[in-house]
């Protein structure tokens, strides 16, 4: 999201008619309108022309008479953003910036038409129009418009919004939607002097923030990219509380500050956030987080993030998932890992495609879309929690052990990462004599160079990466590589789907997987309970 620039005309018109600069000087710029709440598209001129582009989809022709039931792309996100009316808000902001009445007139015309055709509970009104998030987001442009249009229909609509926002059965506690609901309700309460609404918003916000952001600063929604959104919204919430002559609770300010460190740790050396859960690989925080003191951080919320060093694009980086069962924006990725080394992605998740109710969307949530171990012959149990049970952390090497009973028996994964001479080693086992198998999804640019004898080499030009597998120090062969098909997919950006290579292991009672970036011929040995990779040695048990 961006803030619209405030253009100041450099030339004054002569004669009796005021020019844009003179007109703009007579328009009060308001806090409700001048803020970082507008999307990058469409622009005010786009809306005036009757064309709006939402959520990155092609422009849609509104026309003079708007069809409020429109859903040209059958896309839920498009529908929600359309009904948020934030695109209408660009016109009011442009009116404040230029003083040109035509922008305000069209904004009022659009909004009045929307109010007349979208009564809450009325026959013919689409149900999604009054879902919690469109209601919350729509409040901002309506409040912005109310600063320049004093009409009973607008005030009545805002009152209807406040009634829904204050309904406890519709409140999304512990979620970013709840934060937006509180921001919206406080905005209406302060605008019209309704202390009961403002008080409710303030009291709810504190409890919601404590649920959504834990004491370590980790976002509990299970998709790190949402931490950026929540941080931004908390800045808005705190600013609005102060503007409403209210004290910001210390708990909110402290957890908002701690979020910055979480965002820093979940940002890879290339500047993009690790795409875990409903997180796109193109998310850049674009905010000042500062540099944490630690290179490695384990969060109770279910994340381990580690890197070689801060401020170096070539630094290795990894993530490990565990923690509470899947909820909100999470995926079934427990015990999963990602790996970045030598300035590039090595192991990746399938990513985030969209919120559409499609078979592919549901597949991206499944274990098969992540780098996880499976227990052969056992049924997966969704939403199972997992635990971090052991750690051994040093500057040049870290190891972690995580476990759960997502397949009814204990499955355990140990992960070791060596820095300098970059190596990732992963040991998977299951209790009760069960066999395990695992899945390794490589970045789309990496193509198979060779596969045989328990060694798979992938490459992109001169860059190579090698995967080797062992069971009790014996080399395990028979790996299958799938590109496309059932498993070989990744969605690095919204609504995208690319074929990529997935290495599927054979089944074994234990599987030790060694990933060596930067070479197709690593010197690897395993004997006497010790593994050596290019002169770097570690226990075959890893931890």
Automatic annotation (TrEMBL):
GO molecular function: lyase activity
Protein name: Heparin-sulfate lyase N-terminal domain-containing protein
Signal peptide per UniProt: 1-23
Origin superkingdom: Bacteria
A GO CC term assigned to this protein in UniProt: periplasmic space
Localization per record: Periplasm
Chief location of this protein within or outside the cell: periplasm
Cited Pfam families: Hepar_II_III_C (PF07940), Hepar_II_III_N (PF16889)
Domain Heparin-sulfate lyase N-terminal: 56-288
Organism lineage: Bacteria, Bacillati, Actinomycetota, Actinomycetes, Streptosporangiales
SUPFAM superfamilies: Chondroitin AC/alginate lyase (SSF48230)
All residue ranges annotated as the Heparinase II/III-like C-terminal domain in the record: 326-505
Assigned keywords, A-Z: Lyase, Periplasm, Signal
